Amino acid sequence: MGLRVARNLDLALLAIALPIFLAASWPMLGWGAGTAIYVAQRLVRDLVARRAAGSGDPRTVVGLLAGSMIGRGWLAAGAILGVGLIENDAGLAAAVLFLAAFTIALTTGLILRPLDRERG
């Protein structure tokens, strides 16, 4: 249970950010876009990781994971840029929220990686 909570701290941040955005009168477009972009790239990451785990060919695994990382980065950056072109403040808010969630996910992933190896 504790590992599941730790793996989803990034999603908790997105939920906690909503009342902060409301209280601070920050652009809701920024919260909505940042959250949608982050959740979409996370879903793609999980789907590609499952597909890579099911493959027996190491080249396929590396190709899927590397292609996913590069593609998700470009798509997220392009989407955030698009939001910024619609409303400058919303683009900044979306970028900061996305990067905060990504940083939490990366950090917890690095911390929990040894525990995943022990489990099998």
Identify the overall geometry: flat
The largest sheet, given as strand count, sense and whether it forms a barrel, is: none
The strand count comes to 0
Measured by DSSP, the beta-strand proportion falls in under 5%
Fraction of residues in H or I helices: over 70%
Quaternary class: single chain
Number of helices: 5
Radius of gyration: 16 Å
In words, what does this structure look like?
- With 120 residues, the chain is mostly helical.
- It has five helices and no strands.
- It has helices spanning 2-7, 9-24, 28-53, 58-86, 88-119.
- Helix 2 (9-24) packs antiparallel against helix 5 and helix 3 runs parallel beside helix 5 (88-119).
- The longest helix has 32 residues, at 88-119.
- The two termini are 17 Å apart.
- The model has no long low-confidence stretch (mean pLDDT 94).
A few lines on this structure:
The protein has 120 residues and is mainly α.
Helix/strand layout:
Layout: H1 2-7, H2 9-24, H3 28-53, H4 58-86, H5 88-119
Features:
91% helix; 120 residues; mainly alpha; 5 helices
